Amino acid sequence: MDKIIEYMLAEDEGFGDVTSNAVVDEGKIVSASIISKDEGILAGSNIIRDIFEEKGIKVLFYLTDGSEIHKNDIIMYLKGDARTILLLERTVLNLMMRMSGVASAANHYVNLVKDYDVKIAGTRKTSPAIAKFDKMALRIGGADTHRFSLGDMVLIKDNHIASVGDPLETLLKAKKNVSFSKKIEIEVESIGDAIDCVLNKADIVMLDNMGKNDVEKVINELNRLNIRENSLIEVSGGITEDNILDFVGLGVDIISLGALTHSSRSLNFSLNFEKS
Question: Does this UniProt record's set of keywords contain Transferase (predicted)?
Fold first, then answer.
């Protein structure tokens, strides 16, 4: 079992489930179901199935990740030891509800731009320890994961630039010191810096917190200089469902949204025993 999941289960169990041990007979076998009280995209069901099965609970039916779910849909049927199911209940529900919320948010934004050639991406603004589950959920929802960790690519941000002194100098330093196998992305805040970095062929140039007018100026200048193909253009910061099409229509390549993971709403699921 994944070490993070083992930690989650151990943290919830503490020194034992005193309630279940007090009122549920040892060896009691029950049937149960996990039911959706929400609508969205399901994520995490494959992980939850594996947890139950590893703990000896039979999974008789389950919906797969990526399924569209509605209120009162049955996500999973279970049969097994009542105390074990109760011990796992809160942890598995919490994880699947969060992952489904992230997947649903990602899917919503992906659908908003489905008629355009643009990628919706997440960021590393996730919850500590469960970042990889957030990233899985982004993928299930149809979004790009961006980086999983710091080692995936070079992403030069404002503090990196502050430590060197200048965006272009920082970019050139990275190009000199990093293997050809790693893509290099740089975050810029001005039109001039964006042009300089595209001229020097950064793989990706992120226009950070730029308004629509400034993004449009960057794109127009790149087209005028005939260097638009040098770099992918990513926009990030201040993008919402109300203004996303304004940016998409300018011809950007990537839109990254931290809100997909740091502000998405968990879906609501419940686990119910059949009465004896």
Answer: yes
- Residues 163 and 245 grouped into a single domain: yes
For the purposes of burial, counting CB atoms within 10 Å of the CB of 207, is it exposed (0-12), middle (13-18) or buried (19 or more)? buried
- The binding site for substrate consists of 90, 123-125, 147, 157, 187, 208, 236-238, 257-259
Q: Residue 137 belongs to a domain with what CATH number?
A: 3.20.20.70
Positions in the chain short of pLDDT 70: 276
In the chain, the amino acid numbered 220 is N
Annotated binding site: 90, 123-125, 147, 157, 187, 208, 236-238, 257-259
- Tell me which residue range forms the domain holding 215: 110-263
Integer CA distances (angstroms), 199 to 52, 54, 130, 139, 217, in order = 54, 54, 38, 32, 15
Look at the pTM and tell me if it is higher than 0.90: yes
Chain centroid to CA 15: 33
Provide Rg for the chain, Cα atoms: 23
The pLDDT of residue 110 is 98
